[in-house]
Design goal:
The protein is 23% helix and 22% strand. The protein has helices at residues 122-129, 144-155, 159-173, 191-197, 202-215, 329-339, 344-359, and strands at 39-43, 54-61, 67-71, 80-82, 85-92, 113-117, 175-176, 199-200, 219-225, 245-252, 255-259, 279-282, 291-292, 303-310, 320-327. A five-stranded antiparallel β-sheet has the order 11-10-9-12-13, covered by helices on one side. A three-stranded antiparallel β-sheet has the order 1-6-3, with no helix packed on it. A three-stranded antiparallel β-sheet has the order 2-5-4, with no helix packed on it. Strand 7, helix 4 (191-197) and strand 8 (199-200) form a beta-alpha-beta unit. The longest helix is centred in the last third of the chain and has 16 residues, at 344-359.
């Protein structure tokens, strides 16, 4: 990942235990991908963080419409108007963070959160972000990428198989690298650039895949998703920062498919799997609201386990165990990577760990 973030240390000469350090700082940022829109969010630290007292404030011109969201138990003040600005503040640290059971849905783990956004609604986010991800005329006729698309078209006539082959190409032949410099956090590489470099992030891979699908006559669109805590999206202020991933939603024979170019192991047999992102925001020129990802049973399993115990030697002796494990689809992709490293000792050590978790600590295994 290349994100341009640098780190530094500031030693405080003469500081001793018990001293109080007062710190103030400001950050100026402008992202041309957002245009005139502004988004801001911050987590509020709770006790027992070693902070005697503090506060966080955000202000904006009076009369400017913004969306505000507060989540958690923080002591947040009401809006005040001062010198033509509205000011929203919270005291730090938070006395006590909300207790959440470990098995609760992820939306309950948002923590102490403040959000402010000038996006009016999700429709506005969709409409304003859409122009950055157009793929019209993005494939050079007669070029290398066009040749790959023609090869896929020549192999099969049905749209679903073509989509699976295009997704396999993006997953297997384009490496992952996030280049977040110079606006790259929101602005994608062009499909031809991604194919020439053979690397890109979720934006680059999604735009490449969508361009290929369009050339193959398959309907699709870019959608924004939140990989962890996606069930919380309807509770949040509308803004791009709520999302951390991008995939392609394809419509084939009246059925929707969620295609992730950064995943691995997706083939025709499991292309209908629905990722657990809960909600997605399609990027459309006319705008769109959040849509729920449809739930359906997988057509193929993630893994197949076969275990047999041989106690024929008697109950006082360790049993002989035969174990067969097959990992399929996305679950199998990491294992394929391991197997290509030609390191038998590492492979054996990993396999022993998996088997131990499955059958426990036994003296003999086969």
């Amino acid at each position: 990942m290349l994100d341009g973030v640098l780190t530094a240390t500031m030693p405080v000469e003469g500081a001793e235990l018990g001293d109080v350090i007062r710190l103030a700082y400001s950050t100026t940022m402008r992202d041309h991908a957002l245009g005139d829109q502004v988004q801001w969010q911050t987590q509020l630290p709770a006790k027992p963080i070693p902070l005697a007292s503090g506060s966080v404030s955000i202000s904006w011109p009076e009369g400017l419409p913004v969306s505000r969201v507060k989540h958690g138990e923080a002591d947040v003040e009401d809006l005040v108007v001062r010198n033509g600005y509205q000011i929203w503040s919270a005291k730090l640290p938070v006395e006590k963070s909300t207790d959440v059971p470990s098995d609760a849905p992820m939306r309950y783990f948002l923590g102490e959160l403040l959000q402010v956004s000038t996006y009016a609604d999700w429709n506005t986010v969709s409409r304003l972000m859409s122009p950055h991800y157009g793929v019209e005329n993005s494939v050079e006729p007669g070029g290398a990428l066009a040749g790959e698309i023609e090869n896929i078209a020549a192999q099969r006539d049905d749209a679903l198989t073509r989509a699976a082959l295009a997704l396999q190409l993006v997953q297997d032949r384009v490496s992952y690298l996030l280049n977040g410099l110079n606006g790259g956090n929101y602005l994608p590489q062009a499909p031809e650039e991604t194919w020439a470099k053979r690397f890109g992030d979720c934006k680059a891979k999604s735009v490449l895949l969508l361009a290929m699908l369009r050339e193959l006559g398959i309907e699709g669109e870019i959608v924004l998703v939140r990989t962890i805590g996606g069930d919380a999206l309807p509770m949040l202020a509308p803004m791009p920062a709520n999302f951390d991933h991008m995939i392609v939603r394809a419509q084939i024979d009246g059925k929707e498919y969620w295609l992730d170019g950064t995943a691995g192991g997706t083939r025709l047999a499991n292309i209908d799997e629905v990722p657990r992102f809960h909600y997605a925001l399609p990027l459309r020129m006319e705008g769109s609201d959040l849509i729920a990802l449809s739930e359906r049973a997988q057509s193929t399993p993630d893994r197949i386990l076969r275990v047999s115990f041989d106690h024929s030697a008697g109950i006082r002796l360790p049993a002989m165990v035969d174990v067969e494990i097959a990992y399929l689809g996305q679950m199998g992709a990491p294992w394929q990577t391991i197997s290509r490293q030609n390191d038998d000792s590492a492979w054996e050590e990993i396999a022993r760990g998996v088997v131990s978790e499955l059958i426990g600590d036994m003296a003999d295994r086969s």
